[in-house]
């Protein structure tokens, strides 16, 4: 078909919608059409395959040009350098003899003339003769301009014959420059690249023009024909305006195939119209299909309006006649429910008689209902929360046929809400306990310090010293309780580091044997590939001890305590402990016992402070609270699994360390009371604590300056008070905390040393439960030995930047 159109070259117009209206080869030579041709090429190049072809040609040509240019430049460089090397060799062969003779005769004028001759050679930049002689001021003659860049150097020995023996008397040093070589290569590269770029650009334009002439303008014609094609009013077959080819090419074959496809479409369109006519004649079949479709649509609409997880139907007596198979996903036996009422499948319906009476009355009134919630058990006995929606069904005559609806399992939502309430309750308790511990630590600081003073004065009175020791023990017990409260409230500043969990468990297990007693068997199951964890080792050891002590109390008649470590990868679907979803890599430390277990009704209270099932005087109820607070503050969690009569497993999840080599902590040694003579600026708002600190520092030999708040301390600093250490509480009245005071002092006195103290830390020096780097903190309550040791550590340490 395309050939027929091409052979008629004398036609005055195009038959098909063509991209070009005239012969571009002929008009390209016409000067009057050159500007129009450039404009059309520019507009065409902004889209289509032409720009991509141009880019490919330019890219390939550029790569080939650069490669060939680089090869040519390398060959030129090698040739030029070879010429210089040959010239230097010729200098060595032709001049060393005469230069040696002149040097032996000490004829410097002749040497200079000879060196000038060498310097006049092409590319020679500098030449030098150095005499080798054991006498003062040997001859050294140099001409030219020596350089350290782009040069080729040679050293030639200068010899003479003395009594028939060759003797080396000097050295000829020659430098040849490569600057002219590089300049020549640069000029040649610019010429090659410019010529190749021009050639590549012209060739690319010619290729693009020929591609447009032979291909793309015909593709545009085909696209325009397709966009206007109509089956209802088909146009004549497609023809392209082309010169007659000798043989059919690819475009001719495309046009033939396209016209054949259009003919097939026309035949198919005719057959389709005939089929539609036959379908319209079969009216009864069509009406029956429409009625079935309408019934299916109504059922689908009912289901869609009640949108849920599974579907159900009941008869006029409200008994189930159908339950979809999806109910089995939620543990329900749909076949067993057929023939039962909803009240028969519900649990606890007797406890809510009014609710169920109102629901059954609504069913009897044949009213739709939504979001009716009740509880029921699945085949395993687990309690579920359901929400159901229902729509009454009526026959064509208006008679009631039953209900159709859907049901949704809300169990997970109810459990999530319960976990949220539990978490909020624990946070509120944590804030309360943290505040109580703050004030109590200030009091304990004075009590423990004062008891130490009293014990020193009662050393010769045993009967009173014993009473003082009882007070000291009680104060220590109070300090332990406040520490546990702060840990539960997540206000205990941690010092996490990379630790070997297996090594820590082994060391802690050694401590547990005398604590638990001989009637408890201790077994460790440690993973060989256990990761290192990021945690405070002392707090982790205390947590394991607390879990072990609770396990011991659950086995009064003896039993087995198992401590296990393992690696765990948790995702968002894993919930542990208080129900928080955890994600990431964790090291698990599990403590399991074979005791009596935890009853289900109190299991959710075990982490609350002061909650205990032990008798009066047996524990404070803070052990598990401390474990809970430590785990959450560390970035992990704790999970409880217990079965009455079979035992309990407490699983502690700690975040995996990012490092590879855990740091082993050094053993703790007893602190010695260290004395000093420096001046310390004490900033403390509590008068009792302030008086105690001043007295203690004085007994240790220090001089003190005192301020009750940050503003008063800054006044002393601005007045020029001299001190060696700022010892400040963190939480103080007046709008300035200890960290802000320390920053203000360091602005005035760079390098000032600071020691913080507090019984309760906020975000001033602790972030995400961890002390800021470089911060020194003395926790309240503290004793004299700890105070003196910490002061000496800060004073002896490196000054802050």
From TrEMBL:
Write down the PROSITE patterns for this protein, in alphabetical order: HAMP (PS50885), HIS_KIN (PS50109), PAC (PS50113), RESPONSE_REGULATORY (PS50110)
Q: Name one GO molecular function term.
A: phosphorelay sensor kinase activity
Q: Does the keyword Flavoprotein apply?
A: no
Q: List the Pfam families hit by this protein, alphabetically.
A: CHASE5, HATPase_c, HisKA, PAS_4, Response_reg
Primary enzyme class: transferase
Where is each HAMP domain found?
241-270
Q: Please state every residue range assigned to the domain named Histidine kinase.
A: 435-658
Compartmental location: Membrane
Q: GO CC terms for this protein?
A: membrane
Q: What is this protein called?
A: histidine kinase
- The protein's organism comes out as Bradyrhizobium shewense
